[in-house]
Amino acid sequence: MSWELLLWLLALCALLALVVQLLRFLRADADLTLLWAEWQGRRPEWELTDMVVWVTGASSGIGEELAYQLSKLGVSLVLSARRMHELERVKRKCLENGNLKEKDILILPLDLTDRSSHEMATKAVLQEFGRIDILVNNGGVSQRALCVDTSLDVFKELIELNYLGTVSLTKCVLPHMIERKQGKIVTVNSMVGIIAAPLSTGYCASKHALRGFFNTLRSELATYPGITISNICPGPVQSNIVKNALTEEVTKPTGSTADQSYKMATSRCVRLMLVAMANDLKEVWISDQPFLLMIYLWQYMPTLAWWLTNKAAKRRIENFKSGVDWVHVSPLSKHFHTIKRCSPICSTGSFDFVPEGCRFLLF
Ligand SMILES: NC(=O)c1ccc[n+]([C@@H]2O[C@H](COP(=O)([O-])OP(=O)(O)OC[C@H]3O[C@@H](n4cnc5c(N)ncnc54)[C@H](O)[C@@H]3O)[C@@H](O)[C@H]2O)c1
C-alpha cells in the first residue's frame, strides 16, 4: 500500500472519529467527565452499599426515584420531606421493590424552612443509625413568574427553602462528618445554578447561591479529603417541579399540567447522580440536548451563550404569557430530538453498536 493511500485512510479515520464524537456529544445526556465515570469509573453498586444515606425531598420526583434506586443498593435510608403519608408510600415501595428491611428505612418528616428543627432531626438519624455517610440535599421548589410581577415574599421563600434550609441542614450534619473525617454532601442544584433562565429570577438566585456556598465549603474542607462535596446540576427532568413552582404570590399555585415528554426520565437522571456520588465528582451537568450544549456555551463561549439566551428568552416569555411552559415548542429542541433518534451509533451512553476494536475512536 502506498504512503499516500495510507495517509488518506488515516485522514478518513480521523474524520470518521470526529463525526462520531460530534454525534455522540449531540446526544450526550451529561458532561463528559460524568459519562467517562459512568463508562470507566466506580460503580454505585460497589461504592454505596452499606452506607447511611439521608435524602431530603424524598416524597416526590428526583428524591423519590433516588429512594427507589438506593434501596436496591442495600443502603440504610432516611427519607425526609414534609408529608408523612407520601413518605410512607415511598417507604412501602422501597420495601416491595428494593433489598431493604423495615429497620433499614427511617421516615423523618422535615420542613427545610423550619430551621430550628434541623438539629433534632440530625440527632434522630444518628440515634437510629449511628452515622450519616451521605447527605443528599434535594428538597426544593422552583418558580414561574416574571420578576416585575413577583412579590418579595416569593424571593424570600425561595431563599429560605432552597438556600438557607439546605445550608442549615448541612451545618447540622457537618460537625459529625468532620469528627469521622469522612462523608459525602451531595446537593441537587440545577443547570440554572450556572446559567440564566427567564421567569425564575428567585429560583436561579437561590441555586447560584448554593453553588457558591458549596464550592467555598469544599475549599474550607481541603484538610479533610475524606469529606466530599458534589453539586448535581440537572436540566429539565420529569417530576412535579413545575406543578409545585411558586408564582407571583407565595399562595398562588401554577396550575400547570405541562407536557413532560421532552424532559429527561427521572430514572436516568438519578442513575447518573449515583455515578457522580460513587466517583466523588465535584460538579456534574445532567441534561438532554440542547440544554447540555447551553451549559457548555455558558462555560466556554459566554458571548454566544448570551446571544442565544436572549433570543430564547423572548420566545419563552411569549409562550409563558400564552400559557405554554417553555422549550418543548422550540425548533432547536426538536432538531436535537431528531439527531438523537437518528444516531444509533451513539446510543444510550453504551457502546453496544461499536465494534470492540473501534472504541478508542470514541474518546
Ligand atoms: N425536575 C427538574 O427539572 C429539576 C431540574 C433541576 C434541578 N431540580 C432540583 O431537584 C430537586 C428536586 O426537585 P424535583 O424535580 O424532584 O421536584 P418535586 O416537586 O417533584 O420534588 C421536590 C421535593 O422537595 C420537597 N420539598 C418542597 N418544599 C419543602 C420543604 N419546605 N421542606 C422539605 N421538603 C420540601 C417536596 O416535598 C418534594 O419531595 C429540587 O432541588 C429542584 O430544584 C429539578
Automatic annotation (TrEMBL):
Membrane in keyword set = no
Q: Which UniProt keywords apply?
A: Oxidoreductase
GO molecular-function term, one example from the UniProt record: all-trans-retinol dehydrogenase (NADP+) activity
**Any keyword RNA-binding?**
no
InterPro entries named in the record? NAD(P)-bd_dom_sf, Sc_DH/Rdtase_CS, SDR_fam, SDR_family_member_7
Query: What family does the database annotate?
Result: Belongs to the short-chain dehydrogenases/reductases (SDR) family.
Identification of the protein by name: Dehydrogenase/reductase 7
Q: What is the species listed in this Swiss-Prot or TrEMBL entry?
A: Bos indicus x Bos taurus (Hybrid cattle)
